[in-house]
Each structure stands twice: as structure tokens, then as C-alpha cells.
Amino acid sequence: MSTPVATTKPAEPGTTLIEDSTCTFCGCVCDDIDITVKDNHIVDAKRACVLGKAWFYNHHADDRPSCLIEGQPASVEAGVERAARILTDAKYPIIYGLSDTTSEAQRVAVGIGDTIGGTVDTTTSVCHGPSGMAFQGVGEVTCTLGEIANRGDLIIFWGGNPAESHPRHFTKYSLMPKGMFVPNGRKDRTAVGVDVRKTKTAKAMDLFFQIKPRADFEALWTLRALAKGIDIDPEQVKSDTGIELARWQDLMDRMKAAKFGVILFGMGLTMTRGKHLNSEALLCLVRDMNAYTRFVAKPMRGHGNVTGADNVVTWQTGYPFGVNMSRGYPRFNPGEYTTSDTLARGEADAALLIACDPMANFSQPARERLMAIPYIALDPKDTPTTRAATVAFTTATYGINTPGTVYRMDDVPIFLRPAFPSSHPSDFDVLSAIQRRVTELKK
Amino acid sequence: MSERFILIPGRTSKQGCGVSEGKFDESYQHEINTLQVAPADMKRMGLANGDRVRVTTESGRQIDVAVAAATGDELPPGLLFIAYGDLSSRLMDGETHGSGMPTSKGFDVTMEKV
Amino acid sequence: MSSGFFKVAGGTVYDPVHGINGERRDIWIRDGKIVDAPPAPDVRPDKTIDASGLVVMPGGVDMHCHIAGPKVNSARKMRPEDKRKAEKVVRTAGTRSGTMGSVPSTFATGYKYAGMGYTTAFDAAIPPLAARHVHEEFEDTPCIDKGFFVLMGNNHFVMQSIQRKEPERLRSFIAWLLGAAKGYTPKIVNPGGVEVWKQLPSGNVHGLDENVEHFGVTARQIIEQVARAVEELRLPHSVHLHCNNLGMPGNWRTTLETMKTFGDSRGHLSHIQFHSYGGGDADETTFNSKAKELVEYVDAHPNLTVDVGQVLFGETTTMTADGPLGYYLSNAFKSKWFSSDTEMESGCGIAPIEYKNTSLVHSLQWAIGLEWYLLAKDPWRVVMSTDHPNGGSFLAYPQIIQLLMDRTYRHDMLKQVHPAVLERSTLGDLTREYSLYEICIITRSGPARILGLPNKGHLGPGADADITIYTPNDDKTKMFEMPRAVIKSGVLIVDQGEIREPLTGKLLYVAPEYDRGIESDVADWFEKYYSIRFRNYTVPLDYLHDAEEVRTA
């Protein structure tokens, strides 16, 4: 584990300036943020968007206890001991979360799963897990974000609202950049939105398709048929999608005329009826388009290191999420080993939750199960999940207090430049201690 | 009078900022506890900003929540929007249809004034 | 009192670097290195392995495989079905669990290489933007020392420097880039072709002298200039090249032209089997072997080295930085397809395939690989590989060894492949059998020398104590599948098939000198076109767990 030299140059007296620091709030993982630190507070975050600013300004040193056991302050050592016992006593322990921590910590977490024969899953399963399943079925044609900035001339946003979820995406990657083959930036691009609501994103588009809810599958297959010149019934298309066939045809004409088309897609596909079938339809459409022109797809990943979680779990186990190791080796089955299911069906009897908030975000049956079992939570913040944990660790914030590696939404690895130290241990420290102890207990 | 709608939970900037500012803070709590309704639907159902409604899913999950008119034509009639949070979670079923992902958007619901 | 010595006693030693061909010798180890026997006869080793009657070789060196990084990991992610029916890698008290199939998980990769007596492996193709990813995966790939080649053949800065006719700028950039990524040598894959693929549907380059739009360079220029720069930098390994037109009938002409392009510069042509095809017009029915012609050229030009890229029958996953090739293969096999274009640097294509012995083309591919080994006069310049996993898994190396050492086994297999192989290649006429000495060369001593690794591939004093001990067996597959013992850096890591001590292994890299002035040029280029900051691109040394710089000559 290494500590990078944070590049500093003197700013005002009493402050430190850290240039090219990385924001890990969303999947954009902007690494061009200049942070000014004063008295262990970040007082300026140049170039950060509204979400990034909230991230930087609200993660500062505090004097909350680093560990609570059943709500009472305790030493980290006592918390580690209790955590290790919870995990080794359990018959079906689960490990979940991991999208907002470093890959170094993620690697330890998967190791704990291996040692205890547990089930390892990440927030991917409730985000782009369905897209991952689609990818396993048909593959994916994609690129790094700089390719979009340099070549993309037709940019389609489908089922997402980056204006609110990834505020700098347009500026930094997808619409504004003056790229090598798009030297006039926005003027060289056509922006298309497809969504059920006219969001802030829709207003930034040149064309907007307000489709019927739960009609993404039909819309995508309409486009696939049009790409191949297959006759389809205009009445059916209008009735299914809410949009006239002629408009879809116009979109397809533009898609074929593009030099480098891009579809960036979000939860509108993965969370509605059809789920992985929606993602699969999109990935197939993009694949089909490559017979006519260059075209790529990109799932918009929401958290700073959910991509890292996919990568780490995959390289260590072979599978990206929903991995069970009860039999001593990895097995994969979404729907079986994914956390919404292992909780909602009442199968998990202990949990280790890292950098996630299922008590806020999961279904009622899942949350009820979580309330009923002993669990350990690691988080820099006070959340519904940490408040109900048997053992809660307040950990240092990745990227603000700790160094480490994260993976941007396009799999580019970026190293974090921490701004100031924390009195709390890092996820890596706590998980490493838990790993050591469960290894001893399992002997 | 109860009417049928489709509910879309989703992200908003305020909700995203709230994650950092603190999930127990006023701003986040207000954001996730507000249901956006299209102005035309508000009018027809006699709803004003701040009025409370009961939203029920097909499987009988239910929440009571305050409404606010959506801005302009952002929300088409027949759709409701709420920022991800505890309330939207309460409406989710445990069933993931073998995908790992519970249905989290596009719920068929009924809404009535309370 | 501990002497610090470890002794491998009385084994039948093969050390071609020192001309030792099956002689009974002792090997002394201390502090992870092979050392001279202590002069004082009363010095006892702390530990002795009695290797009487056993074959002792340096640890295996795989100089061309795909085992880490974004391409490999995407392939792992994409193929859950490939793992369910494969061998289970079960956790033990000292080892992690994992999965196999054609793209094993990282811990499994390390254990399996070591289990087969390999102690060093190089990933053949990494875009430098992803260098950190590779370093992380390498840390989770135990038991072997590792390095990787840095993709440059479609790098924009490289192409621009060539177009501007600025060889010094090119040379400085290459040196800077290798140090920034902590890589080992420039890798060129389908030079120019991947850039054209990014610009046009099914875009590619089909000859050495086609112009790459917007950049105004040709494949020939890229190969020539980068090869020359590598010579001027005196890098331990030459430029490493995946020629244009891989897999196409008639591509042997491109390969021959490419070989000529090197001039006096060293050049390594990878998975040469895929580039040795006669025939033409993209017509598979005309497919035939031109291995003989190409082998003759390589034999006559000592600046050239190759690794074979042997095909074996069965299912596997193709993965390549050659983006258009991935598209072609997925269409040909009607399989799922992954493609990713890395800004400014490279591409990537992944497609599952199956090589069938009933297929004329696949049978010829299998035969051509074997022809290369059997026709080549100089085993020091023809290295064993399967381009894992493209031709097959690294786990198939023992089977290849048996095919080379046992002509009856080879002929039995030849009888079961497509009969046209007999007319379209010379394999049916080849009766040569490799000796253990020659196998030792093509699997360890040769690749170590080609890579320019002074401490690998031999058992003389100063070498890393990476040693494999085999139980002799007429069944060569069995012999090489399960070594009796494997020593890595002087530690017994494998004992009768069990992993005893999974060390992390070290990262081997180069950091040639360069004119620092290039950095402001590169920083400007980043500012204009990259989506990551220049300051965040370089991998600092302290990021690496355990690394060793291999010096320039």
C-alpha cells in the first residue's frame, strides 16, 4: 500500500493546495480538481460540480467514535473482534457494498469472503448488474471516455439524467470537448435524449424522445429492425413506444450517418420491467450498428469505484458480483447470490456492509431481514445503515483522507491524492484487521 | 378518489448532495420525502403543494407522502417522480425476477388524497 | 547454526546457457540466488532436496501470454459459462480460491503456472493508460515474476513523431512511456490498423504501405522507426510485434515483408503461426502453410526471433489489442463480441471460439505451429507459446512438449485432423523429435535470453533461484504437467503439486534514460486530448509491491 506525494504548491499562508486531485462521488471520477485545505477542512474545490463540492466540503475531520458496538463507543480492536466472531459464527454470511472505497480495500473484502466461505456482492447488483448480465450474453462495444471526447459526433443518452447524476459529464467528456475529430466541440455534435420525463438532461438535447414508461425494450428493438431494413407496423410502434415510426426512422438515419455514435445509458433501462433484457437490446443495437459505422455503448456508473468493485471481484473470483464461496470456490448466480435476494428471502444470517446504505435503498423485505441479523457496517458517514449496525466503524473517506486506486466508469484506473489525514482508520485498515482475525478463527 | 399512475423514483442533484451533507439533514429529508406530480394531474385531483397523498403499489405496499407540482412540462401527466430514499424503498418488492435487481422504477400505483 | 544455503543435490541438470546437457550436478542457493558451492567443505546446507534421477531445469519463462489488465478482465467477466464446467480451484489454509476455464482468475493463474514449473510470465499487450490495473492484478497473481509489454503501434504521439520525421522525439517518448507505465518493451499490434478501425466501420490496414488517414504514416514506418528507437535505447528486449493481417489467407507475404522491414534491428514476431498462411483473396479454401518459407528467412536472419502461438483443439477465448480482428472473429464464429477502444493508444477485441480438428483451417493452424518448431534450425530463436489463451491455454504446454518429443504421438494426432493438412503443409514429412535440452531452450533459456533477462533461464551463479524439478516419464505430458518440486527465489513453493508458499513475485520493468524536455510536449498533448491528467498518468515506483529494474544494455 503506497502513499503518493500529493503535489502541493504554497497557496495562501495556512492553506495547502493539492492539484489534480480526484473526486470519487460519481462515476466521472474527475481527476482535475484543485483542492484547498485549511485546518483539515476543504475550503475550495476548483472545477468540482455541485455534487463534488458537496462531497469535498462535507467530509471533514470529526470526533465521532471510530467504532460503536450496539450503539456504544468501543475500541476498534474490540469492534474487529466482535465483527470477526459475527462472521465466523454465521452459516450464510454476506459481504456487500464496496462501491465507495478503494480497490486495495475491495481486495481485502473479497479475501474475507473467501476465508469465511461467504457471499460477496457489490452495489452493481442494484445498479448495472443487469447490464453486466447482458454483457455476458452478447458482449459490448465500448471505449474510454477520451474516445467520446475526441470522436463522438452523435451522442445518445438513454434512460439516464447525467445533468443531475453526472453534472460534469457533458463538459468534460460527451458534449462540449473540442476533440481531435470534433474540433468545434458542441457544434460538431448532435445530442439525443430518450427518457420518460423531460429532465434537465432533456433540455440540453438537440432531439428528445419522450417514450412511454416501460417501453425501452420495444423502442430498442424498433431501432434494431430499422437498422436492418425490416418492415414493422407503424401502428404497433406508436402504440408500444408512444413515438411515431417516422421519428425513429429519422433517428436511425442519423445514427447511420454518424462517424462515431455513442449511447450512454442508465437506470431507466436496468431498473424497469425487462432489466437485463433492456440492456441486452441496447448492447445488441450498438453491435448491429458497427456494420454501418463506428458505434459504442457506455453504461453510466453511479459511484466513484463501483467499476473497481466489478474489476476486483472479477479478477479475484472470475465473476463480477453475486459470488458465493460457501463450497470453497466461487459460484455465480444473479438472483440467487445477489444481496437483494439473500436478504429478502431471509437467507443471510450475518452481513459485512462496506460503503453502502441498504437500510436506505433496499426493499422492505430486505431491510427487515437486515434488522433481524447481526451486521457490521463501515462508512465515513452516519447513515440509516450504520445506526442499526451491531458493529459500526467510522472510517476515513477515500480520496479525501486515504490514498488508493479507483476505476472510472470506463475502467481507467486513477490514483487518489488525499487532502488531509483522518483520525479514523481506513476501510483497508479495518478490513485487514478483520481478515487477520477471521483467518485465525477459521484455523 | 383514487387514480392510477406510474411512479418513477430517481436521482436528483439535491438528493446526491444530501448523501454527502448528511442523510439525516433537513435538505436531504425534504428532497426524498416529496412526490412530484404533473401540474395537470394536481389540478384535476384538487391537490396543492404540501398536500398529503397515499400511494399504493399493485402488491399493496403503501406510503403517505407530501406532493409538489413538477416544474413546467418536465413530468408528463400520468407519471409521478420521487427522489431515491426511504419512501421509494418502501414500495419496492423483494422479488428480483432472477436478476438480482428489484423493480425500482416504473411501478404501477394508485394515488389518492388523504 | 544456520548456513543460509539450500542445496538441490545430484539432479540431472539441463542448463543450455552453460552448455549443460543432462549432467549430474549440485545446485547451491543462498538469499534467493544461485551461488557457487561454498569452498569450505564443512559448510552444510540448511535444506537439501535429493534430486537424484530427477530432471532439473531453470523455471519456465512464458514470454507471451495474456493474464492481466482490462482486456483479460473483460474476458473473465464475459464468460461465466466457461468456468462452470471447468476445474474448481478450492481455497486452502494458505491459498485462495479461483476459477479456471480459458481465462483463469488471478490467484489461480499464479498457482497453475507455478504448478507447471513456470516462474516468470510476461503479459503481451497493455495500453499504458491501464498500467495501474495490471500492477494491481499482478499483485494478486502469486508465485511468478511478471512484466508486460506496452502497446505503442497505434499510439497517436508515436504516429505523429514518425509523421513529423522526428526520431529523437519518438525515442524520448518511448523511453518516457515505458518508465511511466513501468513496462518492459514497446509492443506493436496491427500497426495503423487499429487507428483505421476507430475511424471506419470494419476499418483496417491491409498492407504495410497503406496510409493511415489523419496521421499520414504507414505500418512499415511505424515498425521501422519503433524498432530502431528500441535499438538506440538498448532495451533488453527488442520491439515485440503482432503483424498486420493476422489470420488472413495469403498473409505470409505481409509477414515476410515485415521481417525485411527490420533491417538490422532486432525484432520479435509474436504468435508467428497465425501469420504463416498461403492462399489468397480472403478465401479459406485456398489456405495452406508457408511456414517453411518463413522459417528459412528467420533462420538466415539472426536479428529475428519468434514465438509460435500454437493452436490446440477445443474451446478458448480470443483476446487481442487488434480491435478489427476481434470483430472479424466474432462474425466468423457467430459469437458474442467485446470491443474497447482506448483513447490515444489502442484497441481491444474479445470473442470466444472453438478450434475443431474437423475444420481444414483449424487443422492447418495446428499443423503450422508444429512445423515452425520442427523446421527451425535454431531453437534459441523459436519460443514455445500458445499466445494464451488465443491458441489455447498455457496449461497445454506439456501437451505441446509431447507433440515435439514424441513423433508417434504427433502422428497419431495427425491422423485425426483434417486430411488436407497432409497436402497443404509439410508436417506429415517431419520426423524430428525434440530433446530435453531443446525443450529447455524453447521454454526457458531461449525466452529469457530474448527478453534480455540476465538472471533467468539458466542455473549459473547470479541467476534467480527459480528451479523446476521433474520426475522423468516417457509420457512427456505427464512429466511436464506435474513437476516434483518448484523453487522460486530460493523458496520451495510447489511440492508434489501442492502450493506450499505463494510468494507475490516481482515486477520486472525498464526505465531507460530520456531527454526530460519531452515531458512538456507530452503534457501539452495530454492537455489537448487525454481525459486523464498528465500528473495522474505515471505509475510511481512506490506503487509497486516489489519491483526490479532490468537495465539497458
Structural notes for this entry:
The complex is a heterotrimer of chains A (443), B (114) and C (553). Chain A has 443 residues and is of the alpha/beta class. Chain A contains 19 helices and 21 strands. In chain A, the strands form four sheets. A nine-stranded mixed beta sheet of chain A has the order 6-5-19-18-17-7-8-15-16. Chain A has a five-stranded parallel beta sheet with strand order 12-11-10-13-14. Chain B is α/β, with parallel strands linked by helices and 114 residues long. Chain B has a single domain, classed as Barwin-like endoglucanases, CATH 2.40.40.20. Chain B has helices at 13-21, 26-32, 39-45, 86-90, and strands spanning 2-10, 34-37, 52-57, 62-69, 79-83, 107-113. The model of chain B has no long low-confidence stretch (mean pLDDT 93). Chain C is built from 18 helices and 26 strands. In chain C, α6 (167-181) packs across α8 (219-233), α9 (252-261) packs parallel to α10 and α13 crosses α14. Chain C is globular and about 70 Å long. The model of chain C has no long low-confidence stretch (mean pLDDT 97). Chains in contact: A-B, A-C. At the A-C interface, α3, α4, β9, α5 and α14 of A face α1, β7, β8, α3 and α4 of C.
Keywords:
heterotrimer; A: 443 residues; alpha/beta; Rossmann fold; Dimethylsulfoxide Reductase, domain 2; 2 domains; nine-stranded mixed sheet; five-stranded parallel sheet; 19 helices; 21 strands; 38% helix; 20% strand; disordered N terminus; B: 114 residues; Barwin-like endoglucanases; six-stranded mixed barrel; 4 helices; globular
Write the layout of secondary structure elements.
The complex is a heterotrimer of chains A (443), B (114) and C (553).
Chain A: E1 8-10, E2 15-21, E3 33-38, E4 41-46, H1 50-57, E5 67-69, E6 72-73, H2 76-89, E7 93-97, H3 103-116, E8 119-120, H4 129-138, E9 139-143, H5 145-151, E10 154-158, H6 162-165, H7 169-174, E11 190-195, H8 200-203, E12 207-210, H9 216-227, H10 234-241, H11 245-257, E13 260-265, H12 267-270, H13 276-289, E14 294-299, H14 306-317, E15 323-324, E16 331-332, H15 339-344, E17 350-354, H16 358-361, H17 364-372, E18 375-379, H18 384-387, E19 391-394, E20 405-407, E21 413-415, H19 427-441
Parallel strand pairs in A: 7-8, 7-17, 10-11, 10-13, 11-12, 13-14, 17-18, 18-19
Antiparallel strand pairs in A: 1-2, 2-3, 3-4, 5-6, 5-19, 8-15, 15-16, 20-21
Chain B: E1 2-10, H1 13-21, H2 26-32, E2 34-37, H3 39-45, E3 52-57, E4 62-69, E5 79-83, H4 86-90, E6 107-113
Parallel strand pairs in B: 1-5, 2-4
Antiparallel strand pairs in B: 1-6, 2-5, 3-4, 3-6
Helix pairs in contact in B: 1-2
Chain C: E1 5-15, E2 20-30, E3 33-35, E4 47-50, E5 55-58, E6 60-65, H1 70-78, H2 81-84, E7 88-89, E8 98-99, H3 106-115, E9 118-126, H4 131-139, E10 145-151, H5 156-163, H6 167-181, E11 186-189, H7 193-199, H8 219-233, E12 239-242, H9 252-261, E13 267-269, E14 277-280, E15 283-289, H10 291-300, E16 304-307, E17 314-320, H11 323-333, E18 337-341, E19 349-355, H12 360-375, E20 382-383, H13 397-405, H14 407-415, H15 421-424, H16 436-451, E21 467-470, H17 476-481, E22 485-488, E23 491-495, E24 498-499, E25 507-509, H18 518-529, E26 547-549
Parallel strand pairs in C: 1-4, 1-5, 6-9, 9-10, 10-11, 11-12, 12-13, 13-16, 16-20, 25-26
Antiparallel strand pairs in C: 1-2, 2-3, 5-21, 7-8, 14-15, 17-19, 18-19, 21-22, 22-23, 23-24
